[in-house]
């Protein structure tokens, strides 16, 4: 059921759908800008194209694929690999060649911004999601895209809807840029503070902290160990949470866990009595897969964790937990992990390897000051990320109303 004055139309009624083209056999893309850009799926994101890593068609191959170009008036949609990314190309890529893994909607008979939002909405994306789940190697055929049916209001209403939603897009894009800038600023600050290149002010003296820093081995200032084995058959419906690398990575990013495994209270108490349990100030760090993701245990947390997949720094002394966790998240420490695990085909961080890694040891009050500054920077980023999530959720709700006609726009302004 569509509002009065709206129509239901298929994509082929309002646009021509055409495919892209791969390079001829024997040719490779080149990084040098020769005026013939080629847009790949890896360059695409929801809404547009990232221009920082664009590759170019060799001049000898230009004529062979000259008919497979996309303009700023078109819309792209990915049809292989990651399905359903849609967007518009920037002005500087007008006339670029389009990958065979994407199609273009061209000769549009509707407002471009309106159709873009409709293709990004659940009305179309749910159809694409169904394609992903029903095929082992999902691919969107031209005929499939042509057959998508969407509600289409009159052109003035299309323009107004596109204008409203694009305002939200600008707010989202601005917030994303602020987050990226804040992360880069924090990264630079970490590099300075965690190497001693920049010294903070000692509140006791009102002057910058002084004194040389020592490097200490993690094995000398903590007990580096792991948990004891828990079998899948030990899992229960409810009890004490049991974390693997996956859960610790999510918790390190402050992402709420949707699914949790459990072991019984009796087993947890038995393991804790014999081998200890994670306590406030301990650090867990991923040892396989995504190596080196650290998590600082906070107070009032009761859980156990998978042996081997996670290593455990207990009874940490000489280093303040918040300072050490910031250091372990830094590029400086992550590069150290790469250097001791890079030689093996299947990377893994062992207790012995982790114990040999070092960390700087400023005075305890300087450690605490550094940690407080970096934690404040993290909180600023978290606030921006929460704002971004709110914007996206608000826009999603607005799309649902505007693109179905449940909420009509005023055309008087």
Describe this structure in words.
By secondary structure, the chain is an alpha+beta fold. It is built from twelve helices and 24 strands. The strands form eight sheets. The protein has a four-stranded antiparallel sheet with strand order 2-11-8-9. Helix 5 (155-193) packs antiparallel against helix 12. The chain starts with 6 loop residues before the first strand and ends in an 11-residue tail after the last helix. The relative contact order is 0.12. The mean pLDDT is 93.
Outline:
It is built from twelve helices and 24 strands.
How much of the polypeptide forms β-strand, as a percent range?
Answer: 15-25%
Give the beta-strand count: 24
Compute the average pLDDT.
Answer: 93
Shape: elongated
Number of helices: 12
Strand order, biggest sheet? 2-11-8-9
Termini separation comes to 27 Å
Largest sheet: 4 strands, antiparallel
Question: Layout of helices and strands, plus pairs?
Answer:
Elements: E1 7-10, H1 11-14, E2 16-19, E3 37-39, E4 44-45, E5 48-49, E6 55-56, E7 69-70, E8 75-78, E9 86-87, E10 96-98, E11 102-106, H2 112-120, H3 122-134, H4 142-147, E12 149-152, H5 155-193, E13 201-202, E14 207-208, E15 214-217, H6 218-221, E16 223-225, E17 235-236, E18 240-243, H7 245-252, E19 261-263, H8 265-275, E20 283-286, E21 294-296, E22 304-305, E23 310-314, H9 321-329, H10 331-341, H11 351-356, E24 358-361, H12 364-402
Parallel strand pairs: 3-10, 18-22
Antiparallel strand pairs: 1-12, 2-11, 3-6, 4-5, 7-10, 8-9, 8-11, 13-14, 15-24, 16-23, 17-19, 18-19, 20-21, 20-23
Helix pairs in contact: 2-5, 5-12, 9-12
